[in-house]
Amino acid sequence: MSGRTADVALVVPAVPDSIAVIRQTVSGVCEALGADPRVIGDVKLAATEACTNVVLHAYAGTGDGSIELDASAEGDELLLLVRDHGAGMTPAPMGEGLGLGLPLIAALTSSLTIVEADGGGTEVSMTFALHDHPTEP
Amino acid sequence: MSGEHDLSTAPELRARLHELGETSAIIIDLDETTFVDSSILGVLVGGLRRARERDVPFGLVLGDQAHPAIRRIFELTGLHEVFPIFATRAEAQAGLSEGEPA
After folding, report:
1. Whether A110 contacts A74, CB under 8 Å
2. Could B39 and A97 be called an inter-chain contact, meaning their C-beta atoms sit closer than 8 Å?
3. Which value does ipTM take for this structure?
4. Comparing C-alpha atoms, which of A46, A55, A57, A71 is closest to residue A18?
């Protein structure tokens, strides 16, 4: 896989039904790259949680907006960027959610960076190792 | 529950759990479920909380053939230690009727 790259860019409306589209897209990218099944599951979950945050928080009250996804791979690493141009990072209001989204993403990724997107909003950058590397006995 | 569930299906699951308020027991079979996210976990925790308030037994079925992604999110979040989890529906029905803590 060394040196292999794949680039996918997608822009979808920031609505709940778009989350499955993002999930199937990243799943397809992972399968094309020959990622391990566990990794595919982790990438799907992390992407879902990042997009859910966008839908719930980025454009709250405005009724529109978009989710931007960039996926690229190099060597054994997949990079996912989930970007919005909404309100930016704000303290989450207390709701029925468990507040597990970001902790889950942190647990599922090799690295996680959250920055202000160019032009405003939030960009979540996530990397994943495409293959498990079991410890030598 | 079968297939994939996320923010788009969470409202329907929440509504169905509300409809089951006065039932004798609530068992949610996750063996045919291939994906859930934290939105769904939030609904399940809310359902468990309401069930406990009403003394209604509440359990999940997560057998050996369950999708690995389902096991993984429960283990990552520690919620596998919060819910009563059974290997089969029959075991869930028997366990919950025998007074398994809801």
Report:
1. no
2. yes
3. 0.91
4. A55
Flag whether A1 is in a domain. no
Per CB-CB distance under 8 Å, the chain A contacts of B43 are 96
Nearest to B4 among A20, A49, A52 (CB): A20
Domain range spanning residue A30?
Answer: 7-129
Q: Could you tell me if residue B102 is inside a domain?
A: no
Which two tokens mark B63? Answer: 């057998």
Q: What is the pLDDT of residues B38-75, one digit of tens each?
A: 999 999 999 999 999 999 999 999 998 899 999 999 99
Give the chain A residue whose CA is nearest to the CA of B67.
Answer: A41
Q: Among positive and negative, which fits the CA dihedral B12, B17, B21, B27?
A: positive
A–B interface: beta-carbon pairs under 8 A: 62
Domain hosting residue B49, numbered range: 2-97
| Confidence check: pLDDT of A137 > 50 | no
CATH number at B11 reads 3.30.750.24
Q: What is the model's pLDDT at position A94?
A: 52
